[in-house]
Write a structure and sequence with these properties.
Layout: H1 4-19, H2 23-38, E1 46-47, E2 50-51, H3 56-69, E3 73-77, H4 83-95, E4 99-104, H5 109-116, E5 124-128, H6 134-144, E6 150-154, H7 160-170, E7 179-182, H8 206-215, E8 220-222, H9 224-230, E9 239-242
Parallel strand pairs: 3-4, 3-6, 4-5, 6-7
Antiparallel strand pairs: 1-2, 7-9, 8-9
Length: 244
């Protein structure tokens, strides 16, 4: 007898795999990625009242990962308005366990006030400090030490050196079959002047850091299925699964 649930899953897997060979779809996605980033498309969305500054497609992917992995702790570098840590906390609230640790070199007072007043703050901790400072990493290690399943998301300074250092510091916290997600790898595919005044550019960005990191870290691999599924994303080749 045909299992309709399994049949649907297999059909979806086939569609996702086929996306990698669909040249018209890939060209359309590339065009949207370019123009939407130039127009700051990601700044247009909120989650539970807080600006999230992420693409909806990436947030759907994160929801799928969180549900699959069931983390006890999500570590994210880069807080900004707090939308993403509130988003992750809300998914963990639905799951019924876990907490989110946000790290930022400058948690602005008005953002801190809004985050701390939010209903999801009960699942959030924050550290103010550079994500690549040894003292910050020690604080993170203390919070993570008893957590069995850990995810990490990197979304702070997007230069190659900074992201590479973050990956070296935070990858050891990631548990097997969980994810290290590196946002804004899309920078490598955008014109250098798409957002004037930023330090990151082609050849010096999160994607180049990912490529460098993977050369010496075979315990991680790019989850190509997520790339083929999303197509529109700020994190192409940035969804890294820990396989060993």
């Amino acid at each position: 007898m045909t299992n309709p649930i399994q049949e649907f899953i297999e059909q979806r897997e086939q569609r996702i795999a086929a996306n990698a060979e669909n040249s018209d779809l890939l060209k359309s996605a590339e065009a949207f990625n370019l123009e939407s980033n130039k127009s700051q498309y990601s700044y247009n969305f909120s989650w539970m009242g807080r600006p999230i500054i992420q693409y909806p497609q990436d947030m759907v992917a994160m929801q799928e990962i969180i549900w699959q992995v069931q983390p006890d702790l999500i570590i994210e570098t880069g807080i900004a308005h707090g939308g993403s840590i509130i988003y992750y906390a809300s998914i963990m609230e639905l799951i019924g366990k876990g907490e989110v640790l946000g790290i930022d070199i400058d948690i602005r007072a008005h953002n801190r006030k809004e985050i701390e007043a939010h209903p999801m703050y009960k699942r959030i901790k924050m550290i103010q400090g550079s994500s690549v400072d040894g003292e910050t990493v020690k604080k993170v290690a203390e919070i993570a030490k008893d957590k069995k399943v850990v995810m990490v998301c990197l979304d702070s300074n997007h230069t190659h050196e900074h992201v590479w250092q973050e990956m070296e510091f935070y990858a050891p916290f990631v548990s097997k079959n969980s994810y290290l997600v590196v946002f804004d790898t899309i920078v490598e595919e955008l014109p250098d002047d798409y957002l004037p005044g930023r330090a990151w550019k082609i050849g010096d960005n999160p994607k180049t850091a990912v490529y460098s990191f993977l050369q010496s870290h075979p315990e991680f691999e790019i989850d190509r299925e997520i790339d083929n599924k999303l197509l529109i994303s700020v994190a192409p080749e940035g969804y890294l699964k820990r396989i060993s």
